[in-house]
Design brief:
This protein has 471 residues and is mainly alpha-helical. Helices cover 69% and strands 0% of the residues. It has one domain: Orthogonal Bundle (Hydantoin permease). The longest helix has 32 residues. The C terminus is likely disordered.
């Protein structure tokens, strides 16, 4: 019978009281840097839609409603429970995840798996950021300059990420102001065109077949699919928070608030551009590709360069999560070695051009981590809103709920391969719901492995409860 904790769990130490920070110095900053990343908000107006006009096909109101729903789903369904468990324990995702997946299973997921997938994020970031810098220098996609900048970008981000969340937060303190200002300037320059905007100006005809509900589901799927892995990483990020109030405010501002801000402004920029008649069809739904039409060629190019520079904090965030995952699952391996190998893999994705398929990379990551967020939330609630502690071996409830949820998340890709003509609405959210509900049902049926004693866990919880009471 298994009684001994593996080294990555037994050797883990909670973040001490003196290492805790308020939400506006850690959680909100880090998440704001992610959601202000241009690769995210430039995708919102299209959100994977194949119909003319993207999610603006039924007007600006419907599209904004979808963004607002998506933002709060990210906060409440993806981030909140992992963040609260991280704050209450002060421990990493790899350790906290052992209650949902077991001490053997937790090593693989979400611990080690989280670290591996972060280098997919890093590769996409390095690829697109380097592409913008290369374009500013007059070099094309796939050029030697593009690839060279991508290599340097990835290596620098890994170095900052290994240094820890305090360094990532410092990088994220000012650089996110760049896309913030650019979004405000672009929106201000196009705001007057909103009143003249109509979907017809994007090539949408009167007999459009897609429903408003379908468009809302598309934007929710796009935003939640992008955010799911960052939500699970809330354990690591919020482990440096002082109280539950920090966790809530950090998420409401950094996750929900910034998502609404960037998503809505990106919609306003597109709608306002065509409302003013600055461009005519065929419609361009990517706000970054409208900057020259709005601001002029020279300013537009400068904005592209600035957006690339501002993309560095999200690259550091990915590297930080990878470093934390490897530090906790492989505590005896120097993180410069483990993360260095990951950086080489990320660079390989950049050089091969596969990192240019952002939708494919994020779709897979979202399908992987949606059910993890759902199952961890269920585990948290079933345990009386606390971390129950590590479980032995592979926890069946966690692994079964993840496997089924993953199939749901990748169903749009899987169904054609199986020759099945059945659609699942909003797969990323459906995967979260499946992970949540199935974990509860399986846990109630007794399909959870037994809890193992965690030295110091009771004291840690008592100290955290006292801090919450004082707050």
């Amino acid at each position: 019978m298994e009684t001994k904790l593996p080294d990555y769990v037994a050797s883990s130490q909670p973040v001490p009281k003196e290492g805790r920070m308020p939400w506006f110095k850690s959680t909100a900053q880090t998440y704001a840097g992610i959601m202000l990343w241009f690769v995210f908000w430039q995708s919102v107006p299209a959100s994977g839609a194949t119909n003319p006009g993207g999610i603006l096909a039924h007007g600006l109101g419907v599209a904004i409603l979808g963004v607002v729903f998506a933002a709060f789903i990210c906060h409440f369904a993806c981030y909140l429970a992992p963040g609260l468990m991280g704050m209450k324990t002060g421990r990493s995702l790899a350790v906290v995840g052992t209650s949902t997946y077991g001490v053997k299973g937790g090593f693989l997921m979400p611990g080690f798996f989280m670290g591996i997938l972060q280098f997919g994020w890093l590769a996409v970031n390095a690829y697109f950021s380097a592409e913008l810098v290369a374009a500013f220098l007059g070099q094309g996609q796939g050029s030697t300059v593009h690839m060279g900048i991508g290599i340097v970008w990835a290596l620098l981000a890994v170095f900052v990420g290994i240094k820890g969340i305090a360094y990532v937060a410092k990088v994220a303190t000012y650089l996110p102001l760049i896309p913030l200002v650019i979004l405000i300037v672009l929106a201000s320059g196009t705001f007057s065109g909103i009143s003249q905007f109509s979907p017809e100006k994007l090539g949408v005809t009167a007999d459009v077949q897609v429903s408003s509900f379908s468009l809302i589901m598309l934007v929710i799927a796009n935003v939640v699919g992008f955010f799911a892995t960052a939500g699970a990483a809330g354990v690591d990020i919020a482990s440096s928070n002082r109280t539950s109030k920090d966790v809530h405010l950090g998420g409401l501002v950094g996750v929900a608030g910034v998502t609404i801000f960037t998503g809505v402004l990106s919609l306003i920029i597109v709608a306002g551009t065509y409302g003013q008649g600055l461009l005519e069809s065929p419609a361009i739904l990517d706000p970054t590709k409208l900057m020259e039409a709005i601001m002029g060629p020279q300013v537009g190019k400068i904005f592209m360069l600035l957006l690339a520079i501002a993309a560095f904090p999200p690259a550091c965030f990915s590297s930080f999560i990878a470093a934390e995952s490897f530090k906790n699952t492989l505590p005896k391996v120097n993180p410069f070695v483990s993360c260095g190998i990951g950086a080489v893999c990320a660079i390989g994705l950049v050089l091969s051009g596969k990192a240019g398929d952002a939708a494919g990379v994020f779709g897979f990551i979202g399908a992987s981590f949606g059910p993890i967020c759902g199952a961890m939330s269920a585990d948290y609630l079933l345990s009386g809103r606390k971390w129950p502690g590590p479980r032995a071996g592979f926890n069946p409830a966690g692994w079964i709920s993840w496997a089924v949820g993953f199939v749901v998340g990748v169903w749009p890709k899987l169904a054609p391969m199986l020759g099945v003509n059945f659609e699942i609405p909003c797969p990323p959210v459906a995967a979260i719901i499946v992970g949540f509900v199935l974990y509860i049902l399986l846990a109630k049926a007794g399909m959870t492995s037994r809890l193992l004693p965690m030295p110091g866990a009771t004291a840690d919880a008592a100290a955290t409860d006292a801090a919450i009471a004082d707050a």
